[in-house]
Specification:
This protein folds into two domains: 91 residues, no CATH class; 85 residues, no CATH class. Helix content is 60%, strand content 0%. 38% of the residues are buried.
């Protein structure tokens, strides 16, 4: 396949598509998407989408890996397409729309920043201090669930998706939503259905 054909196939695959933490260029989905491109391991990205989006993402991923070798400009186009496809599919899994990846440094709600930091350091005191008193117990419970699922083998996609489900549930509640939905609910069901099949995998932390 020629470079022209590959580039055309990428451009034609772009689908024009509400802003959220995962829509930002320095958000967790995009960071993992870049890690997938750099390592050649799509599993870093697969955990952010539902199973019914795997074929589409895998096709774009395979083309992107080829095209990004053709030069800096081609790599920029390929990477952008893959990352936008990843975030769009993730947002669709949450039942919401996608209008593009917001630039790095985009202003994020302080409680969301605190929630991210809480999972990074394993301490949720700062995020709890920003939450209404009546929501703190449930927020702490969701934090504990997400933190407990954070250690996993990246190649155990079911376990990785289970972590993302808990992650989304924690962040949605921190943002003021009362119920997990979309990707979170599906991820929990998916992991439960596959728990025995994946019991032999290790759960080492990758982040």
């Amino acid at each position: 396949m020629s470079m022209t054909t590959l580039l055309r196939s990428l451009v034609e695959a772009v689908v024009p598509t509400a802003e959220a933490h995962c829509d930002t260029a320095d958000g967790p989905a995009v960071v993992d998407g870049r890690r997938a491109l750099e390592t050649g391991n799509i599993n870093y990205a697969l955990k952010w989408i539902q199973p019914d989006g795997e074929i589409e993402l895998a096709e774009v991923f395979a083309k992107s890996l080829v095209v990004r070798k053709l030069g800096a400009d081609a790599a920029e186009v390929a990477d952008r397409l893959f990352l936008e496809t990843l975030v769009r599919l993730h947002r669709m899994g949450e039942g919401v729309g996608f209008t593009g990846i917001q630039p790095a440094g985009t202003s994020i709600d302080p409680i969301v920043v605190a929630a991210d930091r809480a999972l990074e350091v394993g301490d949720d005191r700062d995020v709890l201090a920003l939450a209404p008193a009546e929501r703190r117990d449930e927020l702490h419970r969701r934090f504990a669930v997400a933190l407990g699922k954070k250690g996993f083998d990246i190649n155990d996609v079911a376990a990785a998706r289970d972590y993302v489900a808990a992650y989304v549930s924690f962040f949605k509640y921190a943002e003021g939503e009362d119920h997990a939905h979309g990707h979170a609910a599906h991820g929990q069901h998916s992991h439960q259905a596959n728990a025995e099949a994946h019991a032999h995998h290790s759960h080492d932390a990758h982040r």
